[in-house]
Amino acid sequence: MESLISQGLSLMVFGMGFVFVFLTLLVGMTTLMSKLVVKFEPVAVAVPKKLKPRVTKTIDSNNDELVAVISAAVHKYRS
């Protein structure tokens, strides 16, 4: 019986050790890759875009449909 418990404990220690080593290597490699990408990737210069003039819709006096839709949405939200 002692042998079975010691085998289980050794298997547990081996498994947890393997996972710990793997995760440590994974973190180390991703950190290294991140540093390499930052080092070798050229810095992108943001070129400001020319803003297009905004085209605004003329407000019609016939907003009854819009008011009805907004009222229905508010009523649906509150109920």
What is the H-and-E element order? HH
Helicity, as a percent range: 55-70%
Oligomeric state of the chains in view: single chain
Strand content: under 5%
Secondary-structure content class: mainly alpha
In angstroms, what is the radius of gyration? 32 Å
Largest sheet: none
Distance between the termini: 66 Å
Number of strands: 0
Q: What is the overall shape?
A: flat
Q: How many individual helices?
A: 2
Average predicted confidence as pLDDT: 85
Uncertain segments: none
Q: What does this protein structure show overall?
A:
The chain has 79 residues and is mainly α. It has a domain of 45 residues. Helices cover 68% and strands 0% of the residues. It contains two helices and no strands. The protein starts with a helix and ends with a helix. The model has no long low-confidence stretch (mean pLDDT 85).
Keywords for this entry:
79 residues; mainly alpha; 2 helices
In brief, what are we looking at here?
68% of the residues lie in helices and 0% in strands. The chain contains two helices and no strands.
Give me the secondary-structure topology.
Elements: H1 2-40, H2 64-78
